[in-house]
Amino acid sequence: MDAQSAPAGRVKPVGRGAKVCAAVLAATLDELAEVGYANLTVEAVAQRAGVHKTTVYRRWKDRETLVVDALTEHVAADLPIPDTGDVASDLRELARLLVTHLTVTHLGVAATMFSDAGRLPEIADVRRRFFADRFRRAAPLVTRAVERGQLPEGTDPALLLKSLIAPIYLRLLVTCEPLDDATADHAAAITLAAARAGVFRAHDAHGQSETH
Amino acid sequence: MDAQSAPAGRVKPVGRGAKVCAAVLAATLDELAEVGYANLTVEAVAQRAGVHKTTVYRRWKDRETLVVDALTEHVAADLPIPDTGDVASDLRELARLLVTHLTVTHLGVAATMFSDAGRLPEIADVRRRFFADRFRRAAPLVTRAVERGQLPEGTDPALLLKSLIAPIYLRLLVTCEPLDDATADHAAAITLAAARAGVFRAHDAHGQSETH
């Protein structure tokens, strides 16, 4: 996704307008984190951003478009891709960054992306673009490991990366267990063992290599 | 969890009352599957069950307790645990049963358990009991494999089973990709490779062996 492109049908803000816009989007993320999508109101967002409700409605026709814009901004924020020279450290580091991202930085936002709000077609689309973008950015971690001979030829980056994040999201969204560095290291160990055994080679994947 | 025990504070139904109760709980699951928790109304549940709204309110004080009871009933429904004599087939079969369970049988119910409704403490509790129960029931699949020498001594059943289900829930809840037998087989292959490499031995797990 191009972080520079404004959503269709809305004018890209500049100057004072841009500051108001940024404040409203940040307030929306904060509200999402605090009360969740179901309880989010435009009034509370406006109050938090220090603007009048009508200022919000002038730019966003409803709560849904506001939330979609806020999540799109969030998606544009990047995570660094580790490059330590060793695939085991790289995977542990990447998994630890995800854990930190989900727990410290954006817990409520993550909860929103995977809550009832995820049923909105626009938010499901934000989510798909998010992961396609993440996997594309992180792919060099895998291809470099293959080039160094640390992983089998033909290892599919997206398959491997999904395996890496799966145990982390399981604890966050399904079993409701805490996330910590041990969670990340365990996820990295599972994925590395499977990768070395050739489980993520594209031709072994039986059509699982599409990103969505 | 004991499927025989009635929720505290409610009388266990018998006779005609039991039939009405079962019809209402089934209607609640169907409504959850169709419209989701956010849009579920007691009125629609009553209509679907063929009873008057007041009949529902006589047994359940509100929408929340009704949903909790319906999900608890759902949890009591069991999945068979494969026992083919080979751990690879057992894991594939168990993963395929989960895929079928999530996609064909109870897609909407799964969506509810992991949606905004999951923020209700009662539903989060139902979820924790569900997984503790599932892992306990499926543990013999792992211990039998260890006894047969197909997996390393000390393999932790809950750790292994979480790894097995993680890629399936990732596709269901996070990346929004379709679930099929290939999804299940891929999850089984990842888990088997990691298990053989000793990743799920309890002493290697750095405190990840608690169930919640």
TrEMBL record, chains A, B:
<dbReference type="InterPro" id="IPR009057">
    <property type="entry name" value="Homeodomain-like_sf"/>
</dbReference>
<dbReference type="InterPro" id="IPR001647">
    <property type="entry name" value="HTH_TetR"/>
</dbReference>
<dbReference type="GO" id="GO:0003700">
    <property type="term" value="F:DNA-binding transcription factor activity"/>
</dbReference>
<feature type="DNA-binding region" description="H-T-H motif">
    <location>
        <begin position="41"/>
        <end position="60"/>
    </location>
</feature>
<dbReference type="Pfam" id="PF00440">
    <property type="entry name" value="TetR_N"/>
</dbReference>
<keyword id="KW-0238">DNA-binding</keyword>
<keyword id="KW-0805">Transcription regulation</keyword>
<protein>
    <submittedName>
        <fullName>Transcriptional regulator, TetR family</fullName>
    </submittedName>
</protein>
<dbReference type="InterPro" id="IPR036271">
    <property type="entry name" value="Tet_transcr_reg_TetR-rel_C_sf"/>
</dbReference>
<dbReference type="InterPro" id="IPR011075">
    <property type="entry name" value="TetR_C"/>
</dbReference>
<keyword id="KW-0804">Transcription</keyword>
<dbReference type="GO" id="GO:0000976">
    <property type="term" value="F:transcription cis-regulatory region binding"/>
</dbReference>
<feature type="domain" description="HTH tetR-type">
    <location>
        <begin position="18"/>
        <end position="78"/>
    </location>
</feature>
<dbReference type="InterPro" id="IPR050109">
    <property type="entry name" value="HTH-type_TetR-like_transc_reg"/>
</dbReference>
<dbReference type="Pfam" id="PF16859">
    <property type="entry name" value="TetR_C_11"/>
</dbReference>
